[in-house]
Write a structure and sequence with these properties.
The chain is an alpha+beta fold. The protein has 27 helices and 23 strands. Helices cover about 40% and strands about 20% of the residues. The radius of gyration is 30 Å and the shape is globular.
């Protein structure tokens, strides 16, 4: 807490002047806020961010001013000439430089940004040239136009990224991720432990590459496919998992028009990336802050949806036209329908993959070449093969968002809903009533599932017209909606799928659990063929059998999930609506580089890891002080405030609603309802909670049954940043009983923490 200065009450004129001064400043600040919000058409949330940044700037400005005034007083500490002291002090304030003087025009802003933040200049890589007609005066003349893409030099981008002390500290001082027998992150996987670089240099940079196409125009408009862009991003597996999903941890690597790359081939981009990767793998010297250091790194995984990964790796994008339909094994359609154990298939290897590519290249006739391409499910030898120490078979994991949330789950859910409705066990209106009337948590309500229409259910596709986020919520509430027929064989089939999904989405998975997961997936697919003999096993259902081995090699697959990468698209889609399309790639990459260059201005690169709700004073300070002393062993507390809710690293905790896991008992989690949230001395985030007894785990609901105390019980205190599981849960009432739905399997999470 800052020092308090009191003004003598006798000097009423001074008090009046001070009040008037504060009111004038407040009035000007309010006018600035209104001007930004109304004239610039900025949302209230963004206005709040602007005000917060201005407050930070104001604080730095006043600190600088205080220091200059303090120096003046120190120089005149022993002088009797008060007039000279006053004049010099006033001159210090009058002569204080205007920080916005060099930012008054767009041109000056651009120049100042380049001088101060040194954004990494993107390279324009020319792919080819073509002739086009352009207007020149009253005629149209031929002109040569470059077909190109924009590439952000990887080494320079990493150099800028590592200048942030927090990122550098995570890389050079990695935390102990897990104990033996458990997989919590990439470093626990077998591939990391046997990798020729990572096994020797534990702090080498673990590059996670991601590629995807985005549509920046109206997808139903005339220009829908003309301005589709191909994006390449990267992130670092060295960053702690709780920060890795933050958007500042995801950086742009390349951007191009999808139409240009479809004609030239994606290898033109991969070839440029390969040049930097070879330098990085051998070690390159970069300047981070005031020191120079050698950095090493390699690609640990290439992420994306099935189409993107197959295109990058040289496999056929449409697997329906290939004899071998999987990039991890050499399965065909018939074997895929009857074999559900990974060991029943011949695994692909990098050596065999290269041999098959060479056979295609050496084919003597075009007919033979196309036949080999169809048989092997390959189109070409990808440049990924030339990436240093990269195995494109093992290091292109299946994306659980696209395979499960946008593939297997809606497909099987649709089959089950059709069967239940046709058999008369339930009605579509009953399902939609359950969706509309469910008590969603403040987080889940943002992805509330849409009602399922008759047209959606009767269509021939495998979709339920829900987003990936909506499918996650629908999976959690579905057992409650159909609880009245929970013993139905179709409902039990879906509960089995949800159990599999919860294990796959778990942040911690034991080695022993992988064998259990293999058996569950095999049994589930066999049951699908029995219940729905007229339906084929789809390629995405087949991909599930490879999940256990991929988890064992690369750690939990949620560490390679595309969902957060796709959130990065919003930045470019938002800017594209404000730009012309003459050279949209260049405009977007320039805006991105400016944003990335300013992230190091604040050491706290993850600015929104802590957000607070309404703040209030603590009415009984002694009570809170005693709780802190008894449960957290904290003494000498100076200042405590209470908040209605707080968001820590993406998890929102709300008083009176959120349940947290405080301990375990015989493998069951012990939940506590948050009564109050306190912030102690501006650094400690803790809460007061009331323990709820956990009775049992209900498999039909995939939830824990708990009891709510009928009488007031003694409360306890816990540090919110040292929980066994950081997810906030919410209770659901069903038939007078209280349940806590699981978001993912907690068995191994509770064992390792």
């Amino acid at each position: 807490m800052g020092q308090l200065y009191t003004v003598p009450m006798a000097n009423n004129s001074l008090v009046s002047c001070l009040i008037s001064f504060i009111q004038a400043l407040t009035r000007r600040a309010a006018a600035f806020t209104v001007d930004v919000r109304e004239r610039c058409c900025i949302s209230r949330g963004n206005v709040n961010n602007i005000v917060a940044e201005v407050q930070q700037f104001q604080f730095a400005l006043l600190e600088n001013l205080r220091e200059r005034v303090r120096n003046v007083f120190e120089r005149h500490g022993h002088m009797d000439n008060i007039e000279q002291l006053r004049n010099e002090t006033m001159a210090t304030i009058v002569d204080f430089p205007d920080p916005f003087a060099s930012l008054t025009t767009s041109y000056m802003q651009d120049q100042t940004i380049k001088e101060l933040f040194h954004p990494v200049e993107p390279e324009e890589v020319i792919i080819s040239q073509k002739l086009c007609r352009v207007k020149r005066g009253g005629t149209r003349v031929l002109k040569t136009r470059n077909i190109c893409f924009y590439y952000v030099p990887l080494i320079k981008s990493l150099e800028q990224f590592l200048c942030n002390p927090r990122i550098s500290n995570m890389i050079h001082h990695p935390t102990n991720c897990s104990k033996d027998g458990f997989l919590k992150d990439i470093v626990n996987g077998s591939l990391f432990k046997t990798h020729p670089l990572f096994s020797v240099k534990r702090t080498a940079l673990q590059l996670i590459l991601y590629s995807d196409e985005i549509e920046i125009c109206n997808p139903l408009g005339a220009h829908a496919s003309v301005n589709k862009l191909l994006m390449f991003y990267y992130s670092l597996g060295n960053i702690e998992p709780k920060f890795r999903s933050k958007l500042p941890a995801i950086r742009l690597l390349a951007i191009a028009k999808a139409k240009d790359i479809s004609e030239a081939g994606v290898d033109v981009i991969l070839e440029r990336i390969e040049k930097d990767l070879k330098k990085l793998y051998s070690g390159t010297r970069v300047k981070t802050g005031s020191t120079e250091t050698n950095i090493f790194g390699a690609v640990i995984s290439v992420c994306g949806d099935t189409l993107a990964q197959h295109d990058l790796a040289g496999f056929k994008s449409g697997v329906g036209f290939a004899f071998s339909k999987c990039r991890h094994c050499e399965c065909d359609f018939n074997s895929m329908q009857s074999n559900f154990d990974e060991n029943d298939f011949t695994p692909r290897t990098l050596q065999n993959h290269i041999r098959q590519c060479e056979e295609i290249e050496r084919a003597s006739t075009e007919f033979l070449k196309k036949s080999l391409m169809t048989t092997y499910g390959l189109n070409r030898r990808s440049k990924l093969v030339d990436f240093p120490a990269f195995d494109l078979i093992r290091q292109t994991p299946q994306d659980i968002m696209h395979v499960l949330l946008e593939g297997v789950v809606p497909y099987e859910m649709k089959c089950v809903l059709k069967a239940l409705i046709l058999s008369g066990d339930t009605e579509l209106d009953s399902i939609n009533t359950g969706i509309q009337g469910f008590s969603y948590s403040p987080v889940d309500v943002r992805d509330k599932p849409c009602p399922i229409t008759v047209n959606t259910l009767s269509s021939n596709d495998n979709k339920l017209k829900q987003s990936a986020g909506q499918m996650l919520v629908f999976m959690k509430i579905f057992p409650f909606i159909v609880n009245s027929i929970s013993t139905n064989v179709y409902v039990q089939f879906i509960i089995g799928l949800l159990e599999i999904s919860q294990i796959i989405f778990s942040p911690v998975i034991a080695i022993e659990t992988l064998e259990k997961l293999r058996r569950m997936i095999e049994q589930h697919l066999k049951e699908f063929t029995n219940l729905f003999p007229a339906n084929n096993i789809t390629p995405k259902q087949h991909y599930m059998i490879h999940f256990p081995s991929q988890i064992e090699a690369l750690g939990p697959l949620r560490r390679h999930m595309c969902m957060r990468f796709e959130s990065k698209h919003r930045f470019f889609k938002k800017w594209s609506s404000k730009l012309n399309y003459k050279n949209i790639c260049k405009s977007l990459v320039q805006h991105n580089q400016i944003v990335e260059s300013t992230q190091n201005e604040n050491n706290n690169i993850f600015t929104h890891e802590k957000d607070l709700g309404p703040v209030g004073e603590v009415s009984n300070f002694q009570y809170v002080e005693s709780k802190l002393r008894d449960f957290l062993n904290i003494v000498d507390v100076q200042h405590v405030i209470s908040v209605k809710w707080v968001t820590l690293n993406g998890n929102t905790y709300t008083t009176g609603k959120s349940l947290i896991i405080t301990d375990t008992d015989n493998g069951l989690p012990i939940f506590g309802l948050i009564n109050n949230i306190f912030i102690v001395d501006s650094v400690l985030f803790c809460c007061e909670y009331q323990v709820h007894e956990t009775l049992d785990f209900n498999r039909n609901l995939l939830s824990y049954e708990i009891t709510v105390p009928n009488v007031a019980m003694a409360t306890e205190m816990i540090n919110l940043e040292k929980l066994k599981d950081y997810t906030a849960y919410q209770a659901v009432m069903l038939n007078t009983k209280t349940y806590v739905p699981r978001k993912y399997d907690l068995t191994d999470v509770l064992l390792v923490n």
